[in-house]
Amino acid sequence: MAEPHVTLDSASLNPVEDKLRGPLQAQLTSALRAAIDKTRQAYAGEPVDEVAAALLRRTKSALHPDIADGFRPDPAQLRQVAETIVAEADTRDVPRPRE
Questions:
Q1: How far apart are CA 70 and CA 50, in angstroms?
Q2: Which of 12, 60, 80, 88 could anchor a disulfide with 68, C-beta 3.0 to 4.6 Å?
Q3: Dihedrals φ, ψ of 85, to 5°?
Q4: CB 71 within 8 A of CB 30
C-alpha cells in the first residue's frame, strides 16, 4: 500500500487554519499512518466497516482533542485504506466462524 497522506483543502480553511495547513497535514498524516500500523497488527478478520471505524478511532486518539474534533476524513478514502488492510492481511491463523 502506498503511504497515505492527509491533504487539507485550503478553500475550506479559515485564514489561521490555512497558515497552519502544512504542520496540521503532517500531524494528521502521522496519526493516520500510526493508526494504520496498529490496525494492521491488530487485524483479526473483522469486516471492512469495522476496520475503517478502528482507523478513524485510532487516528483521532493520537490527536489533540480540538484537532480530533475537526478531523473529518473522506469516508470513501478511509474505507479504501481499510479495504487494503483487509486484502493484504495474512489471515491464515484467524479463526473462521463455522457454517
A1: 21
A2: 60
A3: -60, -45
A4: no
Give me the amino acid identity at 41.
Q
Task: Evaluate whether 53 touches 86 at the Cβ level (below 8 Å).
Answer: no
pLDDT by residue (tens digit) across 18-70? 899 999 999 999 999 999 999 999 999 999 999 999 999 999 999 999 999 98
- Give residue limits of the domains in the chain: 17-88
The single-letter code of the amino acid at 93 is D
Q: Which residues of 68-92 are buried (b: 16+ CB within 10 A; e: fewer)?
A: beebebeeeebbebbebbbeebeee
Task: Judge contact between 86 and 48, C-beta under 8 A.
Answer: yes
pTM above 0.90, yes or no: no
